[in-house]
Every structure is written in C-alpha cells, then in structure tokens.
Amino acid sequence: MSPQSWSKEAALGVLATTRVEPGPVLISLQALQQHFGYVPQEAIALVADACNVSRADVHGVLTFYHDLLTSPQPRNTVRLCAAEACQAVGSRELAKALEESGMVEIEKTYCFGNCALGPSAVVKGRLLGRATVESVLAAIEVGVMT
Amino acid sequence: MSVTTIYVPKDSAARSVGADEVAKSIAREAASRKIEIVIVRNGSRGALWLEPLVEISTGQERIAYGPISVSDVVSLFDADFLHGGAHRLGLGKSDEIPWLARQDRLTFARVGIIDPLSSLDFEKNGGLAGLRQALLMQPDEIVTEVTDSGVRGRGGAGFPAGIKWRAVLQTPADQKYICCNADEGDSGTFADRMLIEGDPFTLIEGMTIAAIAVGATKGVVYLRSEYPDAIETLQTAIDIAHDNQWIGSNILGTSHEFELRIRVGAGSYICGEETAMLESIEGKRGVVRSKPPLPAIHGLFEQPTVINNVLTLASIPTILANGAAAYNSRGVGRSVGTQVFQLAGNIARGGIIETAFGITLETLVNDFGAGTLSGRPVRAVQIGGPLGAYFSTTSFSVSMDYESLLAAGGMLGHGGIVVFDDSVDLAVQAKFAMEFCAFESCGKCTPCRIGSTRGAETIQKIIDGDDPVANKKLLLDLCEVMTDGSLCALGGLTPLPVKSAMIHFAEDFGSRTEAVQ
To answer: I need a labelling partner for B408 at 20 to 30 A (CA). Which of A129, B121, B140, B428 fits?
Structure first.
C-alpha cells in the first residue's frame, strides 16, 4: 500500500481503531505511519487527544523508536544491516560502495535475522541475502517499475 | 495417479536468496510439461548454506537438492528429480545429510518438515501432545514438570523457567499475562524467527501451556518489525489456532481460556530487555524498569506476568509430552536439554544447529561451519550477540554451555555465533560495540547513555595511537563504571565485547606491553 497524503479525517479514522487498545500510543503512531508513510507533526495532538495522554508523552514515544519517522522516506531508500554478522561479510564495504553510487539513500538497520546469508538489505520491503551493489541496485530498479 | 509433493521453503532467509522465484519456476516448468505437482512452502531445515533447498517427497522419505537457483530448474526436471533422479546438486535423502543428521532436534523437530500453517500436519507430527498432557494435570504439577526439566531461559539470562512460573502461579491476581519475547535483536541470532516462520503452532502451544500452568488468560507476543514474514505467519497461525479451539475461550473443549495477540516492535533493540518490552507493549517509550519488583509479580499493566523467550516457550510442549526426564537427560551440568545454536557471519555453512549443550566451539565452527565463507582463516568469533564476548581460536575447546562460557569470560546469550576471518580489526569491533550501545541506549542510566559515547571516542583515540597506554586504562575504568552502574544488560554488558577484544586481541589495540585484566 502506498502512503496516503495527510488528512485529519483519515488520521481520526485510523485512531478510532487503535485508541481502544490497551496502551494505545505506540500502536497508534505505528498505524498512522502505516497509513501516511510517516508521522506528521499535526498528528501528535490528535494522538494525545485520542489516547488521553499529554503531547509530551506522544512526542517522547515518537522520538524514542527508530522505526517511527517524522518526515517521508525517500523512495530509493535501502535498509542495510549494519550489525556484526553482516560486518563479517563486508557490509561496511557494501554501504560505502552504495553511498558512492549516489543512487540510493542508506538507512542503517540492526539485524534482519538473516545472519548466515549476509550482507542483508531490504529494498522495497524485500529482503536480499548475499547482497551486492548490483543486486541492490537491480532491486531498486524493479521496485521503481512496479 | 500419484502427485509428487515438492517442498520449497518460505523461510525469509530462503526467500532472500531466491526461494520464491525457484518455487514459481518449478510450478511453471511442471505446467509446461503437464506434470501434476503440489508445492508446499515449508520452513527451512536450517541448513541455510543450502538454501534454496528443494525437496521432493517419495511418500516415505524426502530427497533434497540444493542450493537451487532458477537456472537449475529445467535441468532438475530433465534429471527426473520428481523421482529422486541424480543431479549435480543432489544431496540424497534429506534426513541423511550429515549436517542435519548429526543434530538433536527437539524444539526444532518439525521446522522444515511440516507445512507451517497446516494444523493437520502439526498434529500428525506430534503437535498438541504437550497441551493435551497439560490439560490432564493440575497447574502446580505442570510447573513442577517444567522446573524438573531444568529448562532455562533461552533469551540469554538462563534463568530457570519453572521458578519464574511458580512465582506467577503463587501471586494472586484477577488478570495474569504470558509475554513471549520475540524481539530477537542480537546480530547472529535468527532461531526465534525461524521457529515462528517454520512451526508457529509450537510457540502457541507452549504459551497456552504456560497460561494454563499459571492461570493467565491473556498472552502477547512482542515481535520485532524487522521480521514481517514472521508477523504474517504467526498472525495466520493464531487465527487458525483460534478456529480450531486450541486457544480462545474453550481450549480443546475444556473451560480453559487464553487469548493471544501480537504486538509489533518499532526498531528498538533495548525493547528486547524484558522490562523495556513491557513498557513498549504498554505503548510507552522502551525505558528499562528497576527490578524489583519482578515482572513475575508486577509485570504487564502491573499484573503478574510470565516473560519467556520464543525458544523457551517452544521447548515446553516437548517437555510436557515426553516428560522432564527425557529433556534433562541431555546436556551438561546445569545446562540441560538442547540449545539451538545459530552459526552466522563469515561462515561457509551457516544455519541452525540444535544439539545438547556441551558441544565444543570448534565442532560448531569447523565441523558444522566448515570454516569461513571467504576461505581465509578464522580469527575471531563473537558468541551471544552484540553484548557477548569475542574469542580467538585459542578458546575453541570451550564447551558450549552457560557455565563454561561464563568461566571463559563470555556468555552464551541467545546462542548466536558470529564468525570473522583474519581481515577483522577487533579495535574497530570494540568501537562498534560502544557505538551500538550509544545508539540503542534507552537513556535511563548515565554510564550507558553517556559512557558509551565516551567509550567509542576513547577507542578511536587508541586506534589513532593517541596516548594508547593512558586511554586503554581510561577505557577499562569506564567499562567498570558501565558494568557496575547500569540497570540492565545493555550498559552492563557492552564492556564484555570491548574487554574481551582487548584481552584476546591486544595486538589490535597497540602494543602488548601492559597486561589488560
């Protein structure tokens, strides 16, 4: 599902299903991000109101978790594993080469659980094992076309 | 007319190297040859170096081929692989592949064998035997069985599960919870993911037994967002289990009740720490809680809560089904049962190795692993994730169990082993350990929050040759403060990879002139 552009009504619709959950703040933010691709500033007050917590609390949760984004992610973002098992098979060199290609935005991530088949990358939601510059760039191309 | 069943794993590791494309290609080729086949997307057998591993079933046994790429598919058909024909990628009978045959699979008994989402397959292969047994027992008897089995927390702490369960059982409350920690954030570990993707009903069964044992009616699996396939598989499995009344309001026709749901993480390593996980499930920042009170007494929403790792809970069904004695006859000393080791990093034959505790590191890395992927000599292994110690090959005779690793200055953790070849620079790895701690610190304890950043800076000075003697002394002092002054394992154990690197690989930290102890 591609992200929708921000609308207060849509956000309230999302929050109507999450606000009733026990401990609703994090899942509300996750659901908003799922819908809009990121969590816009305007959403903070809505979440605070829906979950009956302070805006400071919502801000605290939003800025704590690495997954939660406060601005849209570039379309050519590649999530690269930067943890030890992938380091052992050249993830640092892969990251450097991809950076130098100028074709992608790299988001460092710590572990996709594919540690015996590294280096691991996620492109357009797809996990790549034994990733190379070529396989990552090819996956970006395919992803852009579909 | 017999229809051949072909197994192509749907495990995300297998998918990452093309299993989906291979499955599609096999289906297409069979259709064009007008051959009727059934493709089952099983979990992975764990020999990840052979993925995508394609198996055909002859009814009695399975014949394996791997690693298969799309370009091999036509030649497989030409070689009549549907009847086990010879092919250059043929591996013979799956059960006789030495790498698999040498293992002792209890927790992973069904992973890779069954269709992960077939309730029929699950029951036919021994599923629900543990739960049925538990339903015949009193709660206290179940807890006693688990205690007697000696099973210890597989998340890394190694705390006896039965003792935890008894504390929850003995704490009166209207609402108790079972929380499964599936926030498998350690690099080099993937067993939780593979179990959930390959045999999710076993985890559900284990959690249900735990619920019946302690009187809990609600359960949560805290599953990390980096595992989208596992989330999808587990959610489907929960729905199927519900439809079959394995969970829900009348478990297997009894009056027992257990509702299970998934909470997805949000990319925070610290939420694998049990109290931070509880905060996160409650929707808050994943800030570590002080203990006591223990989660067994004041856990999720301040109610008594069992928190166990995926592998701990997934071990419970076999313990109930076959008895404590069958379980604790395996292993060494107080490390009883089997451990699911995960061989990762720069390794020729990586994957899941489930075997009794007490196997040596050398057997795992050299015999199972066949050395490095690069073909260069092994120089270092990190055991137990980013907070585990680095060892050199001089420690290869160490027995892989909780106590022996502790005595050797390391820890078993979640059983992940990351192998590095001789191109690794341990000072850089030590610096990374500090940087990772800085990135993932919840910020509660000053030594962790600030010490980690200062630690990374200090290691950089050592690397740059900036007064290395004084800076090494400073670094050790900082490590001591972090160890003693942090509430949880993140700040408390980050010094472990740092100091072990300094001890075993002193040459990477400048001169060897002064002892590092």
So the answer is: B428
> Quick check: B426 and B501 in contact, CB under 8 A?
yes
Which secondary structure element, helix H or strand E, spans residue B469, and what is its range? Answer: helix B468-485
**Is the dihedral angle over the CA atoms B324, B325, B329, B334 positive or is it negative?**
positive
**Nearest-by-CA chain B residue for A64:** B285
pLDDT-derived band at B2 (thresholds 50, 70, 90) equals confident
Report d(CA B256, CA B444) in Å as an integer: 40
A64 with B286: Cβ contact below 8 A: yes
| A68 chain-B contacts, CB cut-off 8 A | 266-267
Nearest CA in chain B to A31: B264
Domain B332-421 has CATH 2.60.120.260: no
Query: Residue A127 phi/psi, 5° resolution?
Result: -85, 130
Per-domain boundaries in chain A:
8-64, 77-145
Q: B293: cis peptide before it, omega within 30°?
A: yes
Same CATH fold, B426-509 and B119-328?
A: no
Angle between helices A42-51 and A8-18 (to 10 degrees): 30
The whole-angstrom separation of Cα A2 and Cα A36 is 8
Chain B residues inside the 8 Å CB shell of A127: 12, 15-16
Please choose, from the candidates A95, A84, A120, the residue with its C-alpha nearest in 3D space to the C-alpha of residue B429.
A84
CATH 3.40.50.11540 fits B119-328, yes or no: yes
Domain B426-509 class in CATH: mainly alpha
Does the CB of A40 have a partner CB in chain B at under 8 Å?
no
Q: How far apart are the first and last CA of chain A?
A: 12
ipTM of the complex, rounded to two decimals: 0.96
> Side chain identity at B433, as an amino acid letter?
A
For chain B, how big is the Rg over CA atoms in Å?
A: 24
Q: Which CATH superfamily is domain A77-145 in?
A: Glutaredoxin (3.40.30.10)
What are B180's strand-pairing partners? B221, B308
* Candidate from B13, B194, B267 with C-beta closest to A65: B267
Pick the residue of B15, B16, B279, B437 with the most A CBs within 10 A to test the interface with A by mutation.
B16
Q: What is the DSSP letter of B143?
A: H
For chain B, give the mean pLDDT: 96
A-facing residues of B in 282-321 (CB < 8 A) are 282-287, 301
Q: Where are the alpha helices (DSSP H) in B90-152?
A: 98-101, 119-124, 129-135, 139-149
| SS3 label, residue B489 | helix
B119: how many CB neighbours lie within 10 A of its CB? 17
pLDDT, tens only, B314-327: 999 999 999 999 99
CATH architecture, domain B4-101: 3-Layer(aba) Sandwich (3.40)
Could you give the CA distance from residue B50 to residue A143 in angstroms, rounded to a whole number?
27
CA distance B269 to A108: 13
Which residue ranges make up each domain of chain B?
4-101, 119-328, 332-421, 426-509
**What distance in Å separates residue B458's CA from the closest CA in chain A?**
20
Nearest to A28 by CA among A39, A37, B275: A39
User: pLDDT tens digits for B214-223?
Assistant: 999 999 999 9
